[in-house]
Design brief:
about 350 residues, alpha+beta, 9-stranded antiparallel beta sheet, 7-stranded antiparallel beta sheet
C-alpha cells in the first residue's frame, strides 16, 4: 500500500491576545533547549534570515488568506497549491477531479491571469498532471518526468509496464486511439503510439530503477475536447482504482491573487503558499514587542524542522481576530499526525489544542 502523504493543519483554541508574546517566548525557549531536536529554519521577524530565503512564506491554511501583512517590497508572484482531502474511494477522487476542472474553467473566465495545473497525488501509479495552456484554449495531460516508485526501485519493470499500458489505453480510448502500447527494450519502456497518435511520448524511452524516466507520456486536447480529457481521466481512475488527492498548482500576480481570493467562495482544502515576502513593519513591531498595535488576519511567524522520526517541517502562523488569536500550525513536508503531536509537545503548544483543533488531514 502506498504511503499516504499528510498535509495536517492544526488551529489552536482562542487565546487572549495579551498572552500571545509570552507564549511565543516560551516556544522559542523550548526550541533553544531541545538540543537540536527542533531546528528553526526561518523566523519572519528576522530580516537577516529572510534575505537568503528562496521561499519566504510557506504554510497551509483551510482557506486562502489575505497578504495584507506583507510589505509592498515583497515579490509580486504568489504561488500556492491547494490539496484536497485524501480520497480512499476512486469515485470520490473522480468527483473531486470533476469539481476541480469546472472550478478552473470558471476562474479562467474571470480573467485573473492564472497559471494552473491539476495533479493527482498519492499512488504508485504513474503521476498525472493536467495543465492549462498559456492561451487558455487547450489542455495538456502528462506523466511526470520520473515516478517516485521507479526512483526507489520498489516497482518491477513488468508491473510498471502494465500500469503504463492501462494509462495509455485509458487516455487514448476517448480520442479513438486504442492501439498504443509499451514494450520492454534493454530495461526501458519503449512506447508505440499506433496510427494517428493523440497519446505520444515527447522524446524517447521511459526508464526504470536507477535510470529515471527522462521523458513523458503526453496528450493534448483543445478546449472543445475537454469532455474527452475528463472521460479519459475518469476511465483511468476507475480502471486502476486510483486513490489519493487532487492538487491544484496556482500562480498569480499579487494583485490578481487578492482579486481572485475575494471573488470566489473557496472550498475547504489545504492552501499551501510559496511566496517571497517580508512582513510589514507594524507586524514585526508587534511580534517583537515594540508595539501594542495588533495586526489583523494571518501573520506568519516561523518555520521549523523536527529531527525526530516522523517529524518533518512545521510552519507556525498567528491568526488574529478582534480580541483573540489562534496559533495555526501546518506541515510543510509530509508530516505524520504523530510528528505534529510530537512538535506540539516539544514546544508546549499542546496545552492550547485538542482533537478538535486538527482541522485538515
Amino acid at each position: 500500500m502506498a504511503e499516504v502523504p499528510y498535509h495536517i493543519i492544526v488551529k489552536s483554541r482562542d487565546v487572549p491576545i495579551d498572552s500571545c508574546l509570552a507564549i511565543l517566548k516560551r516556544v522559542n525557549q523550548s526550541i533553544a533547549n531541545s538540543r537540536g531536536v527542533i531546528r528553526e529554519e526561518i523566523r519572519f521577524t528576522d530580516s537577516e534570515k529572510m534575505v537568503d530565503a528562496t521561499t519566504a512564506f510557506t504554510g497551509a491554511f483551510i482557506r486562502p488568506i489575505s497578504l495584507e501583512n506583507f510589505a509592498d517590497g515583497s515579490d509580486d508572484l504568489v504561488g500556492l497549491v491547494r490539496y484536497s482531502h485524501w480520497h480512499a474511494i476512486p469515485a470520490d477522487l473522480e468527483h473531486q477531479l470533476l469539481t476541480t476542472v469546472d472550478e478552473v474553467l470558471r476562474w479562467e473566465q474571470s480573467d485573473f491571469s492564472i497559471n494552473i495545473s491539476i495533479m493527482f497525488e498519492g499512488s504508485i501509479a504513474p503521476f498525472i498532471g493536467v495543465e492549462r495552456s498559456r492561451d487558455k484554449r487547450s489542455w495538456k495531460c502528462y506523466t511526470d518526468t520520473f515516478n517516485e516508485a521507479i526512483r526507489r526501485g520498489s516497482v518491477s519493470v513488468e508491473s510498471q509496464k502494465d500500469a503504463y499500458d492501462r494509462l495509455a489505453h485509458a487516455l487514448g480510448a476517448p480520442f479513438g486511439q486504442s492501439e498504443c502500447y509499451f514494450e520492454i527494450v534493454d530495461g526501458y519502456l519503449q512506447f508505440h503510439s499506433g496510427p494517428d497518435p493523440r497519446v505520444y511520448c515527447d522524446d524517447g524511452n521511459l526508464g526504470f530503477g536507477d535510470a529515471r524516466m527522462q521523458h513523458r507520456l503526453v496528450i493534448r486536447a483543445e478546449d472543445q475536447e475537454t469532455p474527452l480529457i475528463v472521460d479519459a481521466l475518469k476511465s483511468y481512475i476507475e480502471y486502476i482504482q486510483l486513490t489519493g488527492r487532487v492538487a491544484v498548482r496556482i500562480g498569480l500576480l499579487r494583485d490578481h491573487y487578492e482579486a481572485w481570493r475575494e471573488a470566489f467562495e473557496h472550498r475547504e482544502a489545504a492552501y499551501e503558499y510559496q511566496f517571497q515576502g517580508f512582513l510589514t513593519n507594524s507586524a514585526i513591531d508587534f511580534l517583537s514587542g515594540k508595539s501594542t498595535s495588533v495586526p489583523k488576519g494571518v501573520v506568519p511567524y516561523a518555520q521549523y524542522w523536527s529531527q525526530r522520526k516522523g517529524g518533518g517541517g512545521v510552519s507556525l502562523s498567528l491568526d488574529f481576530a478582534d480580541d483573540s488569536v489562534r496559533f495555526c500550525l501546518s506541515g510543510t513536508e509530509k508530516v505524520s499526525e504523530e510528528g505534529m503531536k510530537d512538535f506540539l509537545r516539544e514546544t508546549g503548544l499542546m496545552q492550547y489544542t485538542d482533537e478538535s483543533c486538527m482541522i485538515f488531514h
